[in-house]
Design goal:
mainly alpha, 69% helix
C-alpha cells in the first residue's frame, strides 16, 4: 500500500505540474524551509504533504487536526460551564473523526 500512496502522490504532482500550478510559486528555486516536525515522517510523505498544503489541498486528517486544536483552544478559553460542556462535545466529536481519519491513512499505507 505504500507504493499506492507514492504512486498517487506522484500522479497528483505530475498532474499539477502539467496544469502549470507550479509556475511562479513563491520561493521558486530556493531550498525548502526546515520543518523539524517532519523529522519523524519519511521525506517523500513530508514533501508531498507540504506541497499539498501550500497548494491549499490539505488531507482530511490535517484539516481535522487543525479543527481539534481550535476546539481545544475555544474550550480552554470558555468560562461558562454550559458553554464548556457544549465545546467539550464538539471537541470529542472532532477527536473521534480525527482518529478515524488517522486509522484510515494507516490502513491505506499498509
Amino acid at each position: 500500500m505504500v507504493r499506492s500512496w507514492h504512486r498517487l502522490t506522484e500522479h497528483q504532482i505530475r498532474k499539477a505540474e502539467l496544469e502549470g500550478q507550479f509556475r511562479d510559486l513563491p520561493g521558486a528555486g530556493k531550498p525548502l524551509p526546515a520543518h523539524p516536525e517532519e523529522a519523524l515522517v519519511d521525506t517523500g510523505t513530508a514533501v508531498g504533504h507540504r506541497i499539498m498544503a501550500e497548494a491549499g489541498a490539505l488531507p482530511e486528517e490535517i484539516k481535522l487536526k487543525k479543527a481539534v486544536d481550535a476546539a481545544k483552544a475555544a474550550w480552554q478559553a470558555a468560562e461558562d460551564p454550559a458553554e464548556k460542556a457544549r465545546l467539550m462535545a464538539v471537541l470529542a466529536e472532532l477527536q473521534m473523526k480525527y482518529e478515524i481519519a488517522r486509522e484510515a491513512r494507516r490502513k491505506f499505507l499498509r
